């Protein structure tokens, strides 16, 4: 392929030919499969350059040189008209620079968009976490109000729970009302448990069979307060106790796990 044909091929791939050149080249292109393959290869090369080019700020002298060349084109000379391929090469070079710059700009925009999407996802997660915390706080406040009203009622009576040999410093109080399935349990002096373990409350009737109830943990000071919901009026039960169980709770008390007990 001669130099002139190659220059026209590249110009066609970059879509910078004038109308006459383009039409003449397309006639030649329709007759030459190899030439069509070369055009396709050049277009793919330009596309890859546009996607792979990094974003680089040109040095100040580039603008000065470019403007000098533009001013020079306004003063045609014999040398300039005698060498059209030189200016065509300059046009191709400028076009390639523009394509590569736009490609880098496109990549930068995509990176910024990805960063904004990640930031938006993080903000969404933070909002969801805050909402969950507010719901939990609201629930805790509601339970606290319910427990306060329960303790202030005239029909409320108290029953003591005493620590066992496994937890001699532990003590608890259960507040109950005749005919009410609800009760308030307040405990102090229990040790915080490791992961995978929990405290569990039990009630037992006249037959002495323990019935599982709420599981709970204590704070760093060994304190816990919770509302208990029994399967029947609390006053029909005879005994209560607290044991140490697996995190999911148990259907039967574990052997040697009782830390608090009391009678009703």
Question: What strand order characterises the main sheet?
Answer: 5-4-7-8-1-2-3-6
Shape: rod-shaped
Mean pLDDT: 76
What is the CA-atom radius of gyration, in angstroms? 42 Å
- What count of domains describes the coordinates? 2
Q: By helix and strand content, what is the structural category?
A: alpha+beta
Number of strands: 8
Per DSSP, the total helix count is: 6
Task: Compute the separation of the termini in Å.
Answer: 106 Å
Order of helices and strands: HHHHHHEEEEEEEE
What proportion of the residues form beta strands (DSSP E)?
15-25%
**Unreliable stretches covering 5 or more consecutive residues:** 77-82
Helix content: 40-55%
* Major sheet attributes: 8 strands, antiparallel
Structure description:
This protein is an alpha+beta fold and 264 residues long. It has 2 domains: 3-110, no CATH class; 157-263, Immunoglobulin-like (Sandwich), CATH 2.60.40. The chain contains 6 helices and 8 strands; from the N terminus they run H-H-H-H-H-H-E-E-E-E-E-E-E-E. The chain has helices spanning 3-14, 19-31, 33-52, 60-73, 78-82, 84-152; strands spanning 157-163, 171-176, 182-188, 197-204, 210-216, 224-229, 239-246, 258-263. The protein has an 8-stranded antiparallel β-sheet, covered by helices on one side. A hairpin with a 5-residue loop joins strand 4 and strand 5 (210-216). Helix 1 (3-14) runs parallel beside helix 6 (84-152) and helix 3 (33-52) packs across helix 6. It is rod-shaped, with a radius of gyration of 42 Å. The protein starts with a helix and ends with a strand. The model is unreliable at 77-82 (pLDDT under 50).
């Amino acid at each position: 392929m001669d130099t002139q044909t190659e220059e026209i091929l590249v110009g066609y791939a970059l879509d910078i030919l004038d109308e006459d050149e383009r039409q003449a080249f397309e006639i030649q292109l329709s007759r030459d499969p190899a030439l069509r393959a070369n055009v396709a290869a050049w277009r793919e090369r330009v596309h890859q350059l546009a996607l792979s080019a990094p974003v680089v700020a040109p040095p100040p002298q580039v603008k000065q040189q470019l403007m000098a060349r533009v001013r020079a084109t306004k003063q045609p000379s014999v040398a300039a008209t005698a060498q059209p391929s030189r200016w065509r090469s300059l046009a191709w070079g400028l076009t390639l620079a523009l394509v590569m710059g736009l490609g880098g700009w496109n990549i930068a925009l995509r990176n910024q968009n990805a960063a904004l999407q990640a930031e938006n996802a993080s903000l969404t997660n933070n909002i969801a976490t805050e909402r969950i915390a507010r719901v939990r706080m609201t629930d805790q406040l509601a339970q606290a109000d319910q427990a306060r009203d329960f303790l202030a009622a005239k029909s409320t009576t108290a029953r003591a729970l005493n620590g066992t040999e496994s937890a001699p410093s532990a003590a608890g109080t259960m507040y109950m009302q005749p005919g009410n399935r609800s009760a308030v349990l307040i405990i102090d002096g229990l040790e915080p448990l490791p992961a995978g373990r929990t405290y569990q409350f039990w009630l037992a009737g006249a037959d002495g069979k323990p019935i599982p109830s709420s599981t709970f943990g204590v704070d760093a000071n060994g304190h816990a307060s919770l509302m208990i919901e029994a399967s029947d009026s609390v006053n029909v039960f005879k005994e209560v106790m607290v044991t140490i169980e697996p995190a999911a709770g148990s259907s039967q008390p574990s052997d040697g796990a009782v830390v608090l007990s009391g009678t009703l």
